[in-house]
Amino acid sequence: MSKGVILFAFNSPKINYYDMAVSTAKRINHFLDLPVTIVTDVNSIPTSIDYSFDNTITTVADSSNKRNKVTWINKGRYQAFELTPYDETLLIDTDYLINSSKLLKTFELPTDFCCHDTTHFLMNPTDSQEMINIYGIKTLWATVVRFNKSKRAECIFKSMEMVQRNYEHYANLHSFIPEPYRNDYAITLATNIANGNTASIEDIIPWNLVHVGKNTTVYKNTDNIFNTEYTVMFDNWKKGKIRKEYSIIKDMDFHVMNKENFLELVA
């Protein structure tokens, strides 16, 4: 059974996602020892390439999505099932910083599809979990997904395609904001549809997805040790006052929400 990782990377006017994918792939090779396939468009591939992916798949970028009035090419993730050359696949966001071998444990889980449903922010682990709506559907996260070439996994990705193509309808149906399109919401609804409108504990990666928020800056110490600086903003009664908190990350994977900070780390 072949195993590997697939990354989707389409450059936006502000962020070079291809460069992010290169750095992520190098860390995947180092920590997970797995081959990496990139899905991108011809406009994102640089003229001078300093890293060779095991496979490069080009497709047409869907630039219809926008976040904060800036083009955000994150649609088409449902194609992962069709495009992956592997029997067992990890689908990972390019801004997820691999810093351990822990994701290899997902291949040991007795399921053909799994992703995270529980998260915490590095410097604020008591943050409440995100719900897709007020009716109590817990958000699943498309940041890390492991799937096999099974009929059930295929059903989930086909359902994800259906949700993307009819996103405004599902937003109205489930009472969430229809813009921008989010893969997290699409994969939440897709697994719900595939499971007969129920949640399945088998679909869940059994540890938290760690977010590093935009008010936390990460600095590289060594290849697997990072320092963080978290800025705490006080309430109105201490208007203008801030406090800095610090931590060290070692041997732990984490999702860097600040893309500019991610690029600084891997430069």
Brief synopsis:
It is built from six helices and 15 strands.
Arithmetic mean of pLDDT: 90
The CATH architecture name reads: Alpha-Beta Complex
Ends apart, CA distance between termini: 34 Å
Say which CATH homologous superfamily is assigned.
Answer: Spore Coat Polysaccharide Biosynthesis Protein SpsA, Chain A
- The backbone outline, from C-alpha atoms, is globular
Order of helices and strands: EHEEEEHEEEEEHHHEEEEEH
Q: Which spans have pLDDT < 50 for at least 5 consecutive residues?
A: none
Find the count of extended strands (DSSP E, 2+ residues).
15
Helix count from the secondary structure assignment:
6
CATH topology: Spore Coat Polysaccharide Biosynthesis Protein SpsA, Chain A
What CATH first level would be assigned?
A: Alpha Beta
Radius of gyration, whole Å: 18 Å
How much of the polypeptide forms β-strand, as a percent range? 25-35%
Largest sheet: 6 strands, mixed
- Percent of residues in helices comes to 10-25%
Describe the structure.
With 267 residues, the protein is α/β, with parallel strands linked by helices. It has one domain (3-208): Spore Coat Polysaccharide Biosynthesis Protein SpsA, Chain A (Alpha-Beta Complex), CATH 3.90.550. It is 23% helix and 27% strand. It has six helices and 15 strands. The protein has helices spanning 17-31, 80-83, 151-165, 167-174, 183-194, 259-266; strands at residues 3-8, 36-40, 55-58, 66-67, 70-71, 88-92, 96-97, 113-116, 119-121, 141-148, 209-212, 216-220, 225-233, 242-250, 254-256. The strands form four sheets. Strands 3-2-1-6-10-8 form a six-stranded mixed sheet. Strand 13 and strand 14 form a beta hairpin. Helix 3 crosses helix 5 (183-194). The protein is globular and about 45 Å long. The two termini are 34 Å apart. The relative contact order is 0.16. The mean pLDDT is 90.
